Amino acid sequence: MLSKNTVKFIKSLHQKKYRIESGKFFVEGGKSVTEVLHSDFLVETVFATEEFKTRNSDLLRAFKGEVFTATPNQLEGLGQYQSNESALAIVQMKENTSFDLSSGEFAIALDNVRDPGNLGTIIRIADWYGIRKLVFSPQTAEFYNPKVIQSSMGSFTRVRFFYEDLTMVFSKWNRPVYGAFLKGENLHQITQIEPGIILMGNESNGISAGLEKWITRRITIPGFGNAESLNVAIATAIICDNLKRLQTP
Amino acid sequence: MLSKNTVKFIKSLHQKKYRIESGKFFVEGGKSVTEVLHSDFLVETVFATEEFKTRNSDLLRAFKGEVFTATPNQLEGLGQYQSNESALAIVQMKENTSFDLSSGEFAIALDNVRDPGNLGTIIRIADWYGIRKLVFSPQTAEFYNPKVIQSSMGSFTRVRFFYEDLTMVFSKWNRPVYGAFLKGENLHQITQIEPGIILMGNESNGISAGLEKWITRRITIPGFGNAESLNVAIATAIICDNLKRLQTP
After folding, report:
1. Is residue B25 domain-shared with residue B131, that is, in the same domain?
2. Where among B68, B92, B116 does a domain terminate?
3. How far apart are CA A133 and CA A141, in angstroms?
């Protein structure tokens, strides 16, 4: 059974203010809930249908927190999904740590990417390309926003992220910084790369003027038609795909 | 001034039923409205702020339809944008024509891509890569859905599209059909390609079983991490980027 207070608390987590106050966020949908249970996130409570509980009995037996039974209807009332047939989890936020990157690794830096759907999609792309670290300017969308969690399709459990002043990050950085511009090196013609940070800018304004000077490799996604630009998540995917292609022997 | 009937009519165009009944759809936002005015779509009416009218006076002088003045507040009440500072247009749908493709061209075929945001993003990607034709299964999202128009960022004016039974299309087709699968040719290792149709599947179910047999080139986007899949628009972009790279001397 779900008490009124529980329902009220979970609903409060739709708002950033209450997420920050409590240090908690929620994860919904069967696949994402199983992934967060397998991850190093601390899950406090799981609300699940009988069917989910049966299907994941081993996983739930190993779980130290509380498990409540809920109907699909109740789950839909708690989360943002229009249909959630299986589970929802309350999870503790991780503590902030400082960004660092070893020399063979790529990282993605986001300069004020504001749309939670874009952020979640970029996290999924990073996970696909084996990029384990993302560093966000303070104005970038909130990692724990339910839409970010949802659109990352479980990939939020497999990346590390850091909210930092990007100027501070770059001022201490001496390896490549890749940034997309209209007049840079043609991404299809590059033959040599070194791992580094891939910097992506805001949906409307691109990379801030103050950060441009830190970019050491200006790259261009070649266009063949008439669209003026690409969505930031699409551009991130294409850059990651090309850099990983060039990095792979 | 906007009459009550005009407001009611525009609001009805948020629903597919009334779009089909009237054969009309709406386009909102200054940039998209100027692009549709420059295109071969037949624009019937423009609702615009004084500021938009001044800024686009030449374009509006050449325009044969009616122009009404509206405030930003009125425009926001008409469309789906939370902020529309400039214009909204009522536009006639185009007549259906039959899909055809010349031998040097690529086309994108979508098998039941249901999310309007994905469809609009794919249209923008096609336009970026100079792919001018898209063929959609009947269950694919509706081209004229306001979210499709919005997320295409004006690219809807520069592509041709066809709703067709894809089995019928492929049964008459004798050039390559590219389809993404987990175990296909590694897209980064392909060296030779010929233009053809790029077939992308539904968000949850991928390419329908009935269409698989028409695929002549099974390709795989190489993954380097742990994400199980990529969003369909992201996958489309990566495939287009690689095929265009291979096609370009």
Report:
1. no
2. B92
3. 16
Those residues with Cβ within 8 angstroms of residue A51's Cβ, 6 or more apart along the chain or in another chain: A85, A86
Number of domains in chain A: 2
In this predicted structure, the answer to whether residue B248 has a pLDDT above a threshold of 90 is: no
Q: What is the pLDDT of residues B127-167, one digit of tens each?
A: 999 999 999 999 999 999 999 999 999 999 999 999 999 99
Rounded to a whole number of angstroms, the distance from the CA of B221 to the nearest CA of chain A is 9
Evaluate whether residue B102 is within a structural domain: no
The yes-or-no verdict on residue B1 having pLDDT over 70 is no
B37 φ, ψ (degrees, to nearest 5): -70, -30
Whether residues A153 and B121 touch (CB distance < 8 A) is answered with no
Confidence check: pLDDT of B84 > 90: no
State whether A241 and B242 contact (CB < 8 Å). Answer: yes
Asked whether residue A70 is domain-assigned, the answer is yes
Separation CA B26–CA B125 (nearest Å)? 22
- Residue B146 CA to its chain's centroid (Å): 11
Contact B237, B118 (CB under 8 A): no
Q: B-side interface with A, Cβ within 8 Å?
A: 117, 121, 124-132, 151, 153-155, 158, 188, 221-231, 233-234, 237-238, 241-242, 244-245, 248
| Residue A182 lies in domain | 107-247
**Distance (Å, whole) CA B185 – CA B220:** 6
Whether B176 and B71 share a structural domain: no
pLDDT digit string (tens) for B19-35? 999 999 999 999 999 99
Instruction: State which of A42, A67, A92 marks the end of a domain.
Output: A92
Residue A137 is predicted with a pLDDT of 98
Beta carbons of B225 and A130 less than 8 Å apart: yes
- Count interface pairs A-B at CB distance under 8 A: 113
The answer to whether the Cβ–Cβ distance between A237 and B242 falls below 8 Å is no
ipTM surpasses 0.85 = yes
One domain, residues A157 and A193: yes
Contact B224 A155 (CB under 8 A): no
Smallest CA-to-CA distance from B135 within B100, B177, B87 is with B100
What's the CA gap between B7 and B202, in Å, rounded? 35
Low-confidence ranges of chain A (pLDDT < 70): 1
B12 φ, ψ to 5°?
-65, -25
When the pLDDT of each residue in chain B is averaged and rounded to a whole number, the result is: 95
Q: Is residue A179 part of a domain?
A: yes
Q: What CATH number is given to the structural domain containing A127?
A: 3.40.1280.10
**HEC string for B158-191:** HCEEEECCHHHHHHCCCCCEEEEEEEEEECCCCC
**pLDDT of B63 above 70:** yes
Contact present, B214 and B177 (Cβ < 8 Å): yes
